[in-house]
Amino acid sequence: MKWAEISIQTTQEATEAVANIFHDLGTSGVVIEDPELINSYRHSGTWDYCGIPEDDTGIVTVTAYLPVDNRLHRSLQLFEQRVNELIHHDIDKGSGAIRWREVQDEDWSSAWKQYFHPVKIGERVVIKPSWEDYQPADGEIVIELDPGMAFGTGTHQTTQMCIRCLEEVMAPGCTVFDIGTGSGILAIAAAKLGAREVRAVDLDPVAVKIAGENILLNGVQDTVCISQGDLLTGIAGDDKAEVVIANIVADVIIRLAPDLPFRLKEGGLLIASGIIITRLSDVAAALEQIGLSVEKIMEEGSWAAIVARQGGV
């Protein structure tokens, strides 16, 4: 079978939106070549050499595959149209240069696995692909992961900052809400760091399925409950949590903010990331407006994370 390999040159800011457009067109996943992220892993020795030249341009290339059939032409038109519409959402698409070529059949859903290896994040947490062996050192917490079509391999700066924050703030026996769980990595990390109950939610049914599989893979199904829903409205009832995680994007965190005072316990913490640095002040202002006190800001590359507290200490 022939496939169309479709690539677009864009910005870090637009990467997630472009990936979502590809997903809506029916692709089984995307390959993201982010020079900033790739260079950091090349220098750390975490990844094997991947054949991608070292690059400081800041141009992110997002690639996906669609079958070459009678729907391809319309899909390409729709893709270009939706990318051009990103400007209406104040998202910079960069050059937006789109290229495509025919390629032969291959298992695109797993070809990227050659670049994904165990990686230690923070002081204790190690993310291990389900297909690789790893012998943990004393005190390490290992999370087995098969991201499938869901976002979240643990290698992105936003996920890593959230995990480091979790290591710092988690108290044994607390309740955690993970909003926009993706592959379930942060919910699983919270459970393995001592949470009594973790309630994870995602709007995407594919993410819910894959997160559920990863929860079972890690043996935390008695602690983590996964459901489909929209932000905090997807958490049934009126229960409150000691920690809410939201590794999404700035606009969605701002939309989430008004519900936080009703779902965080007094003194509870929000860990928010997926925030492009240019939007950091907007998110911080939205949180302070609803009474949360920003206690910590982390920055890595072009991304930021915020830890904010509800009410008292």
Full CATH superfamily name of the largest domain: Vaccinia Virus protein VP39
Strand content: 25-35%
Q: How many DSSP E strands?
A: 14
**How are helices and strands ordered from N to C?**
EHEHEHEHEEEHEHEHEEHHEHEE
How many structural domains does the protein architecture include? Answer: 2
Class from helix and strand fractions: alpha/beta
Q: Which CATH architecture of the largest domain?
A: 3-Layer(aba) Sandwich
Task: Report the radius of gyration as a whole number of Å.
Answer: 19 Å
Low-confidence stretches: 45-52
Straight-line distance between termini: 60 Å
CATH class identity of the largest domain: Alpha Beta
Order of neighbouring strands in the sheet with most strands: 10-9-8-11-12-14-13
Q: DSSP helix count?
A: 10
The shape is: globular
- CATH fold-level assignment of the largest domain: Rossmann fold
Write up what this structure looks like:
This protein has 313 residues and is α/β, with parallel strands linked by helices. It has 2 domains: 3-98, Alpha-Beta Plaits; 114-310, 3-Layer(aba) Sandwich (Rossmann fold), CATH 3.40.50. 30% of the residues lie in helices and 29% in strands. The protein has 10 helices and 14 strands. The chain has helices at residues 12-24, 35-44, 72-84, 108-111, 157-169, 185-192, 205-217, 250-256, 260-263, 280-289; strands at residues 3-10, 31-33, 60-67, 98-103, 119-121, 125-129, 141-145, 175-179, 197-202, 224-228, 241-247, 264-276, 292-300, 303-310. It has a 7-stranded mixed beta sheet with strand order 10-9-8-11-12-14-13, with helices on both faces. Strands 2-3-1-4 form a 4-stranded antiparallel beta sheet. Strand 13 (292-300) and strand 14 form a beta hairpin. The protein is globular and about 55 Å long.
